[in-house]
Automatic annotation (TrEMBL):
Ribonucleoprotein among keywords: no
Any one of the GO CC terms: extracellular region
Highest taxon, organism lineage: Bacteria
Pathway: Cell wall biogenesis; peptidoglycan biosynthesis
Keywords of the record: Acyltransferase, Cell shape, Cell wall biogenesis/degradation, Peptidoglycan synthesis, Signal, Transferase
The UniProt record lists the keyword Oxidoreductase: no
Descriptive protein name: L,D-transpeptidase
L,D-TPase catalytic domain mapped to chain residues: 236-357
List of catalytic residues: H315, C333
Signal peptide location: 1-21
Molecular functions (GO terms): acyltransferase activity; peptidoglycan L,D-transpeptidase activity
Biological-process GO terms, alphabetical: cell wall organization; peptidoglycan-protein cross-linking; regulation of cell shape
Family annotation (Pfam families): Big_10, YkuD
Amino acid sequence: MIERRTVFRAAMAAGSAGLLAACSGQTGGTAEVNQAHVPPKAQLTADPAVNTKDVSVVKPVTVTVKEGTLTEVKLTNADGAEVKGELNPEKTTWTSAEPLGYGKTYTYSAKAKGSDNKTAELTGSFATVTPAREVRATLNPVDHAEVGVAMPISVKFAEAVTDRAAAQRALTVETSTEVEGAWAWLSDRQVDWRPKEYWPANTQVNVSAKLYGVHYGNGAYGKADVTTTFTIGRNQVVKVHTPEHRMRVYRDGNEIANYPCSNGKDADPNLNTPNGTVIVMTREPTSIFDNERYGYTDLEKKWCCRISNHGEYIHENEENRANIGKANTSHGCINLLEADAKAYFDSALIGDPVEVTGSKANFPTTSDVMDWLLDWETWKSMSAL
């Protein structure tokens, strides 16, 4: 799309008195006619120009005058409603102050008084872009959430994003404490931001995704802006070294709990509790577990904290009491005694890190929550900018 800036000059029509004077042949009559036909000095320009198509809905519309001041500017939609706008202090530029609608026609009209005291006028219309598809995005954590120190910020799109750089440029993260972090695309529908190290405790975070009007490629555009404000809670980290059969909980680096546990079977890498840093994803007072391959369905367990989309949880398993603290016999979950599982459940926040070591297998990087399974250099390389 090529846009041209259009310049308008308003001509002053000659009155009948001026014409009579010109015909009389009296001195000064011709000068009056010439003066009447001199165009105003004020020059009005608009961006976008008259009849421009496919105009961005977020780029501000401007009306500018040279050699004069603006006296009136209106930008209206097809229903006649005016678009908000502001004049600069010199009254030489008017700028729209709100986004436009997709697939709409807008009309502007403006007047300016020039240094010669003559009035110049501008009128015209333009049309905004019509998306082939409007794509919705969601943002997590949600507003006012309190989360753990490993919680990533995640933007998910309803369909694949072709122009990832354009989408990423619309994303900003502001923190109350300086935090080094970066965006990384985990798929063509998801981009996450995580800090280089765990978040500082009690950090306030504001995220803005100004995605309305952003072209994702192939005619798809952002449907709406999304924002969130959340808080990082206390620093709590879970550490499990699977051969020890213990689950240790640390606050600010100090051990505050040490629970006996039974982890995934050591002999079978498919049943290990895998190595890696994951996060508490959900807190479920009860959960139903099914795995027909290993002979159980509709198995209900209490005080369950999901730690991956690979199937691992921290949960109560009184049926495995004989092995808790002694042997690794689960199918990948971290089994606790009921009282310990309840105590841990009550202490946990979504986004708390869980660090697992000592297993034969590593967590796969196929989950949509695998942010801490990647080293920092790899993470940064997954940015689109």
